[in-house]
Amino acid sequence: MLEEVISGKITGRKSKSGGIMKTFEYTAVVWKEEKGYVSKCPELGVASCGDTFEEAVKNLKEAVELYIENARELDLMDDIKESLTAKEKFTARFELVV
């Protein structure tokens, strides 16, 4: 499994609702499947995919931006703010025999 931390570079722009946009760091977990790559942001549970690693990350970033824009419009930013502003983030791998 490949993992990459990606910074959203959205500072200084205004959202469609007119609010100031902030920069958040989020995690993209990306893995290869038979017909492409799957990407997931574990902080939000948002997922996407692409034909290449780069496309999967790009598509995930767009999906996360839309998710956050929706959260702003629905006044739900307080519900997700902690997961997006946490300074310490950890990932782990483990084996499971089933």
What does this structure look like?
This protein has two helices and four strands. The chain has 98 residues and is an alpha+beta fold. It has a single domain (2-85), classed as Double Stranded RNA Binding Domain, CATH 3.30.160. Strands 1-2-3-4 form a four-stranded antiparallel beta sheet, covered by helices on one side. 12% of the residues are buried. The model is unreliable at 1-12 (pLDDT under 50).
Give the % helix: 25-40%
Reading off the top of the CATH hierarchy, the class is best stated as Alpha Beta
SSE succession: EEEEHH
Query: Can you list the strand order of the major beta sheet?
Result: 1-2-3-4
Structural class: alpha+beta
In total, the number of strands is: 4
Gross geometry? globular
Average pLDDT value? 83
At the fold tier of CATH, the topology name is Double Stranded RNA Binding Domain
Beta-strand percentage range:
25-35%
As a whole number of angstroms, the C-alpha radius of gyration is 15 Å
Output the number of helix runs.
Answer: 2
The description of the largest β-sheet is: 4 strands, antiparallel
